[in-house]
Amino acid sequence: MRSVALPDALPDGSRFIHIGLPKTGTTALQGALDRARPRLEELGAHNVGKGRHEMRVGQVAADGLAEFWQGSWEQRWQELAREFRTSAARCTFWSSESLSHAKGERVAYLADQLGADTHVVVTLRPLAPLMVSQWQQWLRRRGVQSLEEWATSQFEAVSVEGDVSVDYVRFAPMLHRFSLRRIVEEWGPVFGEDKIVLVVPDARDRARTFRVFERLMGVPEVLEAVPEGNASLPYPEAEMLRQFNRAYTDHDGDHATWMEAIGVLARIPLRDYTNTLAPHPIRAPRWVAERANEYAAAWNAVVEASGVTVVGDLADLLVDPADHAEEVAVPTAVDVASAGRLMDVVFTAALEHASRTHAATTAATPAEPDLTTYGGRQLLGELGRRARRRVIRR
Amino acid sequence: MSLLHVPDAAGGMNAFAVPTWWASLEDDRVTRDEDERPDVTVVDVAELPDDRTLLVVGSVAELLAEPTPDALAAWVGQVRAINAAAAAPVHLAVSLDEVTCFEQLLALAAGRRWPPFDVVAAARHTDADPVPPPSVPGGQDTARAYADALVAQVEVLLPPAWQTATDSAADATACISRALDTDPDVGPADARALRDASRSALAALEADGVTISGPRDALLWPVPAERGLVPIDVAADAALEVMLAVLERPVDLAPDRPVVVPVGELPARALLAKLGGRR
User: Fold this and answer.
1) Which candidate in A346, A353, A385 is best for mutational testing of the B interface (most B CBs within 10 A)?
2) Phi, then psi, of B39 in degrees rounded to 5
3) Are A333 and B270 in contact (CB < 8 Å)?
4) pLDDT per residue over B81-119, tens digit each?
């Protein structure tokens, strides 16, 4: 392992991918990279991704796109890969935490598509709080287990030694996907351990990750924090979402409807709703912190024995269990106005979903529009507006 | 052709099913066999996939003789007895509105909600065409907070899209309202126990093969908000019902709800034809 406080700039003509991990400040980093895009281009650093994050494209690349998604992301992925491997920029990069879904042969496929000399950058976070964030993310995918139930199932699915005891086809258990052992063992032989850069966060300096990426790209300090709008649900509201998922599942609700209504249509309203709530951070109970430390320590040992570059101190990936309460009370009540607003989000999303479904099923036979509600003056006004628009266009 | 078996009104169930109501339908599909089943009316229904026995119920408070677990158990026993003795499995249709017409009865028997609801029109209402908050009975701050969160109060015209959106908002508000509108004689702890018991009762009925449709949250005993806080499971049940109330409605337009397209989206030839008086 090569340990550095800050990395050197990658050689001219280098390319790197940032593969997450999820919930390690990727949204903030991608927002900063997107905002600084023009300046980065001037400085020779080319971002092949559009916008903040092309999540579905990353999922296609990593073979991690859930089946219920329909879209033309494969074509975009091919375009992006071509641009990435043929870019003549001094430094070319792409950030998508979805890439960390890739496993086994898919990692080799990525090397084939993007170039085997690509550097792989991985941002990290202590496992205990990372698990809490992942649990919250899982609730946004219709999860029904409590935090402790979910953590128990995660620890049971993957041993500290890395043995996976559950069957899966596409989506690896969280402790396998996030395992530094797996990243070293699966990504190292393909891209080369010397091409892998692990970035340990500095809890006292949240902008330090920006500095790391600037150094890698060989640019001055151009990355600045942008408003994320990516706050976590407070514990009562997280529990309310979980109980909602439980009630939906008890009702034999289908997954595709939930995903479109709540996972997609309610995503932005849920985010906006979250941003207005009083924070109520969720802390893992002590036993979860202790178990998470066991995994983190084992992974660190693999990293130390490898040839990867570590930016920062691996020890910072462990937490002090004493900072975690023995027992964490699960909220059983929620503020009435907050409950009402969640219902508003659900109501609106369901209405939109039903409307879309109806539109899709009746698209072949559109109904005759009704004009009886419009008066002559209204119709004349509309025709006048259209005539003016046509004149202006000419 | 399937048979719909409708037991006569009893114990707060099938309150509509009395001889005069059936007679008022004057429909050949409705028959009774006074010798074999003198307490059941049978309806020939083409739309049903299988024979079923229909029990239409309102809210749980209307079904129980008193707000106690024993009364709840007695009601469950009554449904089970009907299910065991019936010629076809029982379908429990929750309806907070009185059954007034044959079409409504068939919709409930098919597990659909009533009345029909134009989701497309409801979804079309915009910020420029907002829906006023529905009125909230009693002094329920929670329900009012919900209504305030749902819509903004502005004087507007009343096109059909607005009306359907108003209907859906009223339904949604009624849902949270009834979840919290508990019997003042039942304390919070007893209300919670009754809610848990009614949840278990519904699960037990379903395990027996009884199917349930409509706003099933109405069959869960309401629980009061305390100190501005509402139990999370109650909030979740209400949120689910708000969602299902939209998703489970028939999407067909009601006869009095024409398709209204925003004037800006209409083709010019349609506007000219209307101005020329050809519509």
Assistant:
1) A346
2) -110, 15
3) no
4) 999 999 899 999 999 889 999 989 998 999 888 877 667
Residue B247, chain A, CB below 8 Å: the answer is yes
- In the predicted structure, residue B257 carries a pLDDT above the cut 50: no
- Distance, first Cα to last Cα, chain B: 41
Q: Are strands B90-94 and A309-311 parallel, antiparallel or unpaired?
A: unpaired
Residue located via tokens 């600045």: A224
Helices (H), A96-207: 105-114, 127-139, 147-157, 174-177, 180-182, 188-191
The predicted structure's pLDDT at residue A351: 82
Tell me whether residues B274 and A379 touch, CB distance under 8 A. Answer: yes
Residue A67 has pLDDT above 50, yes or no: yes
In order of A235, A254, A343, B223, B230, the CA distances from B234 in angstroms are 16, 22, 12, 7, 7
Largest Cα–Cα separation, chain A: 81
* Residue numbers in A near B169 (CB within 8 A): 347
CB crowding A43-55: b at 16 or more within 10 Å, else e:
bbbbbbbeebbbb
pLDDT of residue B126: 59
Question: A70: which DSSP letter?
Answer: -
CB B55 within 8 A of CB B7: yes
Is B148 in Cβ contact with A383 (below 8 Å)?
no
Q: What CA–CA distance (Å, rounded) separates A99 from B154?
A: 48
pLDDT band at B129 (very low <50, low <70, confident <90, very high): low
- Residue A368 binned pLDDT confidence (cut-offs 50, 70, 90): low
Distance CA A345, CA A269 (A): 6
Query: Can you tell me the distance from the alpha carbon of A324 to that of A287, in angstroms, rounded to the nearest whole number?
Result: 9
pLDDT at A308 over 70: yes
- Say yes or no: B249 contacts chain A, CB-CB below 8 A: yes
Give me the amino acid identity at A224.
Answer: E
Question: Which CATH architecture group holds A2-127+164-229+286-324?
Answer: 3-Layer(aba) Sandwich (3.40)
Per DSSP, the residues of A340-375 read HHHHHHHHHHHHHHHHHHHHHHHTTSPPPPB-TT--
Q: Name the residue with higher pLDDT: A12 or A340.
A: A12
Bridge-based pairing of strands B30-32 and A196-199 is: unpaired
